[in-house]
Design goal:
Number of strands: 5
Shape: elongated
Family: Belongs to the site-specific recombinase resolvase family.
Keywords: Coiled coil, DNA integration, DNA invertase, DNA recombination, DNA-binding
Protein name: Helix-turn-helix domain-containing protein
GO molecular function: DNA binding; DNA strand exchange activity
InterPro entries: Homeodomain-like_sf, Recombinase_CS, Resolv_N, Resolvase-like_N_sf, Resolvase_HTH_dom, SSR_resolvase
CATH architecture of the largest domain: 3-Layer(aba) Sandwich
Length: about 180
């Protein structure tokens, strides 16, 4: 018996998967997994991994839109390949995608390109905004996470970088960086 397995994702904690879940239920999904995590990479997406482990031959993974599944063309291709290898399909409720058809496969690849393009454009705009803010003296970056003076003082007192890292609860690389040394 084939299953319709739904996957819903939003990027931030203050967003809600409710609308996606309703659409997936209306599409006939008998299992729906949701998570609140960025789609720019597969790391940390435990619900997606659960779905990909669980899905079987003849099953269909259903999403509302492809950008809910992946924001990277490579990730999208890898997910579709995993589904294909298991004999499963992918469908989107809001887009004409069905990997069981040639047209659906072609449209999927076009949308994947646009999803990745959108992510790249967003990153470019963010970097432009940061550059402008830095030029105006408004953006200073995040505060240092390590007290460099304390690192230097402990080092001058004969403490090793590893011991300083343990003492301060930071990574050894951060200590080396604070001391102006290359980590070995």
């Amino acid at each position: 018996m084939s299953n319709m397995i739904g996957y819903a994702r939003v990027s931030t904690r203050d967003q809600d998967c409710g609308i996606q879940e309703e659409a997936l239920r209306a599409a006939g999904c008998n299992v729906i997994r949701t998570e609140k995590v960025s789609g720019t990479s597969r790391s940390g997406r435990t619900e997606l991994e659960t779905v990909l482990d669980f899905i079987r031959e003849g099953d269909t993974l259903v999403v509302t839109r492809i950008d809910r599944l992946a924001r990277s063309l490579l990730d999208l291709e890898n997910i579709v390949s995993e589904l294909r290898n298991k004999g499963a399909n992918l469908k989107a409720t809001d887009q004409p995608i069905d990997t069981g058809t040639a047209a659906g496969k072609a449209f999927l690849q076009m949308l994947g390109v646009f999803a990745e393009f959108e992510t790249s454009i967003r990153k470019e705009r963010q970097m432009e905004g940061i550059a402008k803010a830095k030029a105006k003296g408004v953006y200073k970056g995040r505060k240092r996470s390590i007290d460099r003076e304390r690192v230097r003082s402990l080092h001058d007192d004969g403490m090793s970088p590893s011991a300083i890292a343990r003492e301060m609860g930071v990574g050894r690389t951060s200590v080396y960086r604070a001391l102006g040394m290359v980590a070995t």
